[in-house]
Amino acid sequence: MSAPDDQELAQARRARLIGIVIAGTAILWLAFQWLAFGLSARIALLVDFAAMAAFVWALVNVYWLWRARREE
After folding, report:
1. What does residue 40 show for φ and ψ, rounded to 5 degrees?
2. Cβ contacts of residue 65 below 8 Å, gap of 6+?
3. I need a surface site. Which of 1, 14, 53, 62 has the fewest CB within 10 A?
4. pLDDT for the residue numbered 38
5. CA 57 to chain CA centroid, nearest Å
6. How many helices and strands (H and E) does the chain possess?
7. How many CB atoms within 10 Å of residue 38?
8. pLDDT digits (tens, 9 = 90+) for 39-69
């Protein structure tokens, strides 16, 4: 078994970051939903859009990572 090269390490770091963003976004969004009773709908919608943006960012990066690994 050979040692991982720089590209494999970079892909592993990127995958780890994507996982952290997905898990962190889900946890923070759920926590906000639990704590947000009584806040305005405008703030709730803003948090929902921020969570959707984070999930879209993660989905796009998963696609890029998948394509990069497929080309190898």
Report:
1. -70, 155
2. 11, 14, 15, 18
3. 1
4. 77
5. 6
6. 2, 0
7. 5
8. 888 999 999 999 999 999 999 999 999 999 9
